[in-house]
Amino acid sequence: MAGAEIEVARLETENSDLSQQLETRKLVERAKGILQRDLGIDGGAGVSQHSAPEPSKAQNHEGNCRSNRAQRRSKEQFPFAIGIRSAKNEKSAGRKSRASV
Prior knowledge:
By secondary structure, this protein is mainly alpha-helical. It has three helices and no strands. It has one domain. The two termini are 19 Å apart.
């Protein structure tokens, strides 16, 4: 009977970890979509770094400025995302420490 309980606990922990990974993936995809929209990047344009020409210093500077603006906008629009991640990490860490006892 104890072996079954251990297996159930292991599967519950694995399920929780996978759920957390899925939620993180959803947030990343949403943020990616916002950045693509704000920066005017086509999501399907997967251009290899090897085939793209080197950008000039001015283009790099402009890209960095756009990226910084987009990051600030993303933090303003989704301030809760940071709290969700840290709360889930704390919850997960507590579960792992109990499982190891």
